[in-house]
Write a structure and sequence with these properties.
The complex is a heterodimer. Helix content of chain A is 50%, strand content 15%. Chain A is α+β, with helices and mostly antiparallel strands. In chain A, strands 1-2 form a two-stranded parallel ribbon. Chain B has 26 helices and 23 strands. The relative contact order of chain B is 0.10. Chain B folds into four domains: 2-59, no CATH class; 64-111 and 348-496, no CATH class; 118-337, no CATH class; 544-712, no CATH class. The chains are: A alpha+beta, B alpha+beta. Chains A and B meet through helix 2 and helix 3 of A and helix 1, helix 2, helix 3 and helix 4 of B.
Chain lengths: 119, 881
């Protein structure tokens, strides 16, 4: 089922799954399986998401009222639960994204050899 | 929570749906259906764990664990029912008695006044500071207000919807068949409307009732008085009743249960402007410098305490400036309105309450020590279970939490049980105590029923208790040496170590000491009671009626009083069945004392001598013999120089000499000469023979306030009735209070009886708890050393030796605790004996019997498990566990 070599796949950092779910739902309401697929697809299948771990995360987000869950019908006319971003979740996404940006930048700065080190 | 339920209910379906989609995707990519399904499952991960984790999102782990712990705790407790029962009993008793006492204090001091919306009421008090000597007159309470001050506060504040003032405890004679004394209140005319206490019948006061001084004689009577005296006659409203010689129109009957705003119930309320008429011409209304009115204000909605303080402070400052004489500053004390809210009342109540609460906290302490012991004992049995769990990786905190949950379960169950018992029994105990108060005591309206405060106190106490007795065993038993514990070597576990042993001994020793103090105090009090009941006061107390006449308070001047008394004594002298009549300033044992400073000529310094003014037949009536000299003659009065002293007084003042003719000089310089000596009698203080005492002849000055003693030979009720009749045949409005001399003895005995009964119960409780504790500790220590004993026996020690060992181990802390207890109690008994009649400071019987008794209990508690230990088969012991 995998199209890439196992070694190229990256385990998710703790806590980033929430951010990914929020970002994914920005595209519109989705059911659980579609979210997993979307994350995989959008990361060029680099990110390894154990699909089951999606569910505790989804419930955690529902409990915080960042997303909501609604009954709906999927493309092939099956009943499914659709998850959608709430207004609160949208605000949270902005906060988390900027936090993540800062974090990534900081880590990159540390990991990349600085000029002082070369001198 | 609905959201949570719905989300979790759909979880299974969602996961199934997810897996189906993934399988379908895989099939679409060309896998066989079976492979596709496996791949989907692999990619999904552990379904059970996912469900569990999702579940945990909604149900916090700690909550789940708490339920686990509770279930486990209940199961463990039920597995050792004897121990659980003992622990529950100890906690229930300890908490119950504390909650009961607190509910009494709550009823006295914390409960809001029993009127509607009482939380809005503030008690306003003032403390006056004078520069130099203050010149304030005080009636009842120094933190109260004068009438003009009240009007100022009432008319110029911006924070109260209404401010009332009242003078409580006004005594009045109610004219009627028995001329009864009743206690009432003079209140401002907004009293009923501000308190929202509309009378059940008729009306309360309106402003016009107070419009002019002394003009509106109206009265509201209490429900009790209405039922007790007027047979609940509904037509009483509109009729007139006579209080202290003034006729008042009844305008209302108060709601049943409304007894005023003081702990002593009020029987009637009159407008404050009637005060001078009500109190025999003493006009407090126009005295601007007298504290006599208590104030209660109903705060406006939304007004804070600071605003009240600031607003009233302005008025107080203005009053200070207007005050002439020494410069004064007023500080205001504001409290939620309760029965005891004036600073003066608080300052007496708080120390008493803390002493009482401390005494009862000691009992709770014993309970806690006991239960800690029992739990330690149980923990030692469970050491293997605990060690196993620890070795399998259970966190220590998790274990402590579980053990604490168990002890909290115990304490909450015990606390609930104890509180229920307390709520049930203390209302009854209060009723018993108040109904056994001697007739002289005013009735007190205390509501001891539980309210929110009491429940919170009970809950807090239970939680505190659970942590107090549970924490130590929990910490201790969750830190065993795993190796030895799993091997089952009991002696190495927990308390087996030296420090643990010491701690355990300390627990037992301190609980024996505390118990000893309580028991000894109870023993002393019971001995005191016994003496109070059996003491011979030294005069004939039976068959004597006493009549207290305070004519000065009933509108008599001295001439009229003397006239009345002469006629009165003559008339009762002639009554059938009366054999003797005497008059005295103080009746024997009536708690009326007079004392003065005297000098003996030829000696330096003064002696304090108690005295009484008596008529000549006083001694013969009471059967007190004159041993030397003579009694007074009827013509001797205050101006006569003769005095009579008691034997022991004479011995002390003139040792080895003939007292007759000896002189005593009063402070004023006047000299008196001894004309007679009487035998000693306990006329002033029951139980004290060594008071200096002398007698002066009675004179006309005494007539406005004195006692008349009557010896009778027929039934008391008949005599009392004919005495009242003869008084009222002279003056129909006079109030006569006829009692029995024996009843005064009751007043002396009542406090020691009540205290002895309470402390006896407390001591019995302490003994019970202490016995449980010692027994539990000893059986624990014996069960712990079963292996030890087995080895000793196997090596050839004989039973007696083992027994001695066990006994010594267990009795050592008991002995040490006992000695400490006796020493502590010797200190305490000094305080007790000064408060209670009949207590010797170091009563030998109490001091010997109580410790012996406790030792015997400890011995039995040791002996029974000790014998069990002796009978242990060495092989069994060695293999045990």
């Amino acid at each position: 089922m995998s199209t890439k070599e196992q070694s190229e796949r990256v385990e998710l950092l703790q806590g980033t799954l929430d951010l990914l779910i929020l970002r994914t739902l920005q595209l519109g309401p989705m059911h659980g399986h579609a979210i997993a697929k979307a994350i995989e697809f959008r990361s060029d299948e680099v990110l390894q998401v154990e699909q089951g771990s999606l569910y505790p995360a989804l419930h955690r987000l529902i409990k915080r009222r960042w997303i909501s869950a609604e009954e709906g019908t999927s493309e092939n006319n099956r009943r499914a639960k659709f998850y959608a971003l709430t207004a609160k979740g949208r605000r949270q996404l902005a906060v988390e994204t900027s936090k993540w940006g800062k974090l990534a930048q900081a880590i990159a700065q540390i990991l990349q050899p600085g000029e002082q080190e070369e001198a | 929570m609905k959201r949570r339920k719905r989300m979790l209910a759909d979880l299974d379906e969602d996961i199934r749906d997810h897996l189906e989609r993934e399988t379908q995707d895989n099939i679409d990519r060309g896998m066989s259906p079976e492979d596709a399904r496996h791949a989907a499952l692999r990619k999904f991960g552990n379904v059970a764990r996912v469900k569990e984790e999702t579940w945990a999102v909604w149900n916090p782990v700690w909550l789940e664990q708490l339920f686990q712990d509770i279930r486990f705790g209940v199961r463990t407790s039920l597995r050792s029912p004897g121990l659980t029962l003992a622990a529950l009993t100890a906690i229930a008793l300890g908490i119950g008695i504390n909650v009961g006492i607190f509910s009494v204090l709550n009823g006295l001091a914390l409960r809001l006044l029993p009127v509607p919306r009482a939380q809005e009421l503030l008690s306003v008090n003032q403390i006056l500071h004078f520069q130099g000597r203050g010149d304030r007159s005080i009636h009842n309470d120094s933190s109260w207000f004068s009438y003009s001050e009240y009007l100022d506060y009432r008319d110029h504040n911006h924070v109260f919807d209404g401010l009332v003032a009242y003078e409580p405890f006004v005594e009045a004679t109610l004219r009627g068949s028995d001329m009864r004394q009743v206690m009432g209140t003079a209140a401002s005319c907004n009293y009923f409307s501000v308190l929202i206490e509309h009378p059940a019948l008729g009306r309360g006061f309106v402003d016009s009732d107070c419009a002019s001084r002394g003009a509106n004689a109206v009265v509201v009577v209490s429900d009790d008085l209405w039922r007790g005296r007027f047979a609940a006659d509904p037509s009483l409203v509109g009729k007139e009743i006579v209080l202290n010689r003034t006729a008042y129109t009844v305008i209302g009957i108060a709601r049943p249960g409304f007894t005023g705003t003081e702990p002593i119930p009020s029987a009637f309320w009159v407008p404050v402007t009637m005060q001078p008429a009500l109190e025999g011409g003493r006009d407090r209304l126009s005295n601007d410098n007298m504290s006599w009115l208590a104030m209660l204000g109903r705060t406006r909605p939304g007004v804070t305490m600071q605003e009240v303080r600031a607003d009233l402070g302005v008025i107080a400052g203005r009053l200070d400036q207007r005050h002439t004489g020494p410069k004064r500053t007023t500080s205001l004390a504001l409290h939620a309105a309760t029965f005891f809210s004036s600073p003066e009342q608080r300052s007496t109540l708080i120390p008493v309450a803390s002493v009482v609460l401390a005494a009862f906290a000691l009992v709770l302490l014993i309970s806690c020590a006991n239960v800690a012991n029992l739990l330690l004992a149980r923990a030692s049995v469970r050491q293997r279970e605990i060690a196993l769990r620890l070795s399998m990786g259970a966190g220590r905190w998790r274990l402590v939490r579980q053990l604490l949950t168990e002890s909290l379960l115990l304490s909450l169950a015990g606390g609930a049980l104890g509180s229920l018992i307390a709520f049930w029994s203390f209302t009854r105990i209060m009723r018993l105590v108040t109904s056994h108060l001697p007739s002289g005591f005013p009735p007190i309206a205390v509501n001891v029923a539980p309210n929110l405060q009491v429940l919170v106190y009970a809950l807090a106490l239970s939680l505190f208790t659970g942590i107090a007795f549970g924490l130590f065993p929990a910490l201790r038993s969750s830190r065993p040496d795993l190796n030895t514990a799993i091997k089952g070597d009991g002696t190495q576990f927990g308390a087996g170590r030296k420090s643990g042993r010491l701690l355990l001994d300390l627990l037992v020793g301190s609980q024996v000491a505390v118990c000893m103090v309580l028991l000894l105090a109870a023993g002393l009090l019971l001995r005191g009671l016994y003496q109070a009941q059996t003491v011979d006061p030294g005069f004939e107390i039976k068959g004597v009626a006493t009549i207290f006449m305070y004519l000065g308070r009933q509108g008599y001047d001295q001439t009229r009083a003397t006239q009345f008394m002469r006629g009165f004594r003559e008339r009762i002298q002639d009554l059938p069945g009366v054999t003797a009549v005497a008059q005295a300033e103080c009746a024997p044992l009536s708690h009326d004392f007079s004392a003065g400073q005297f000098t003996v000529p030829g000696h330096s310094g003064t002696v304090q001598i108690e005295y009484n003014h008596i008529s000549p037949d006083y001694f013969s009536l009471l059967g007190i013999p004159i041993v030397r000299g003579r009694s007074f003659r009827p013509d001797e009065a205050h101006d006569a120089p003769g005095i009579i002293v008691t034997e022991s007084t004479a011995r002390r003042l003139w040792p080895g000499q003939d007292p007759l003719g000896k002189a005593l000089r009063e402070d004023s310089g006047r000299e008196y000469f001894v004309i007679g000596v009487t035998k000693d009698a306990q006329v002033a203080h029951l139980g004290q023979l060594d008071t200096n005492y002398l007698y002066f002849p009675v004179g006309p000055e005494d007539d406005s306030r004195s006692y008349v003693l009557v010896r009778y030979e027929i039934g008391f009720t008949d005599v009392a009735k004919s005495i009242r009749d003869s008084a009222q045949s002279i003056d129909p409005d006079v109030s006569v209070d006829v009692g029995r001399l024996e009843d005064y003895l009751e007043v002396w005995r009542a406090p020691s009886r009540i205290v002895a009964a309470l402390s006896g119960a407390l001591g019995a409780l302490a003994l019970l708890l202490c016995s449980i504790g010692v027994y539990g500790m000893v059986s624990y220590s014996v069960s712990r050393s079963v292996r030890d004993i087995g080895i000793r026996m196997a090596l050839g020690a004989d039973g007696a030796q083992v027994m001695r060992h066990v006994l010594w181990q267990a009795m050592r802390p008991v002995l040490i605790g006992g000695i400490v207890g006796v020493v502590l109690c010797a200190a305490v008994s000094g305080v007790l004996s000064s408060m209670m009649f009949g207590l010797g400071t170091h009563d030998p019987i109490a001091f010997v019997s109580v410790p012996l008794f406790l030792l015997a209990v400890a011995f039995v508690a040791t002996f029974i498990p000790g014998r069990r230990a002796m009978r242990v088969d060495p092989m069994v012991a060695l293999r045990c566990e």
